Amino acid sequence: MIPEKQIDPETIDGDGIFFEIFLVPHRSLPPVGFLAVMAVLIGLSVAIGVGFTIAGAWPVIGFLGLDIVLVYAAFRISYRAACRSERVRLTAQELEVVFLDGADGGRRAVLEPYWARVDLAPVNRKHTRLVLRSHGRALELGSFLGAEEKVALAETLTDALHQWRNRVA
Question: Rounded distance, CA 152 to CA 96, Å?
Fold first, then answer.
């Protein structure tokens, strides 16, 4: 969770933005680490493959190659999922949530901030859902965040909405 812009409730900037936050998933392995993991995996597979080929079990090389391809595909899928992000922006007129996806650009939802409510509902002992509700609409925010980050985000959003309502009133 990366707070991009939090503005004092007494002032709204030139763009009319009262509060804005960007949510991005955490990437635990940088691209250099990915290359290192793949290099080690390929090196081990070649060494094992040579050993099996010398022993006369040359078909093992195909399975070792398949392992490399599957690990590579899993990492690529993981990196593609890490490209998504969410932006929550509270302006004088609206509460805008933009779900950005690297592939198709994403989608945008606009809620009435006066009636917006932040709910943090437990799914089970370890997982919670952060839902933004307004007029029968529900938007889940930060599905990729950890439980502590969701609690912090819920408090931050609730506080921002409360300050916005007090400012408007």
Answer: 19
- Using CA atoms of 144, 156, 159, 117 in order, give the dihedral in degrees to the nearest 10: 0
Residue pair 23/85 in contact (Cβ under 8 Å)? The answer is yes
Q: Would you state the structure tokens that stand for residue 159, as one six-digit string?
A: 């506080």
Which pair of structure tokens corresponds to residue 121? Answer: 């509902």
Q: What is the pTM of this model?
A: 0.68
Instruction: Break the chain into its structural domains and give their ranges.
Output: 2-25+86-168, 31-81
Residues 12-60 have pLDDT tens digits of 455 688 899 998 887 778 889 999 999 999 999 999 999 999 999 999 9
Cα–Cα dist 128/118, whole Å: 13
Among 147, 110, 105, residue whose Cα is nearest residue 132 = 110
Residue of 88, 81, 116 whose CA lies nearest to 2: 88
3-class state of residue 45 by DSSP: helix
CATH class in words for 2-25+86-168: mainly beta
